[in-house]
Amino acid sequence: MANNNEEVDILQMHDLRPAPGANKRRKRVGRGEGSRGKTSGRGTKGTGARYQVRPGFEGGQLPLYMRLPKLRGFKNPFRKEYQVVNLKRVAELFPEGGEITPEQLAKAGAVRAGEPVKVLADGEISKAYTFKGVKVSASALKKIEAAGGSVSED
Length: 154
Prior knowledge:
Layout: H1 33-36, H2 47-50, H3 64-67, E1 83-86, H4 87-93, E2 98-100, H5 102-108, E3 117-120, E4 129-132, E5 135-136, H6 138-146, E6 150-152
Parallel strand pairs: 1-3, 2-4, 3-5, 4-6
């Protein structure tokens, strides 16, 4: 404990007070001239002075929420949209075969850059292609492997 001649100030329950300005009195509106004046801060006349107008009310005009079409169905915000390339297009752009990446396909103008790519099986290939970093459909994979190619999705 402290020395005998020092007094320790301990916080007690009855010392607790809310922070200054934390507790404000609510406005008592419409209780006579003495509180908030004749019109209680609502101005004079008009709908807003007489009663509460619900949110979105446009004064009798057809409201925005009724002018817009109803939403139908569900749109998945996490859907992954693939750029598609057919084997026929790959054979046209790269007739010599070899390794193909999404960057090369974008440079050749087959897809947009920076988006995931999927190769589909439309068309035939005769050269061996090595696809890297692209998705491939099951039927396209068969055709690629039959031509001596391979696929790695890393």
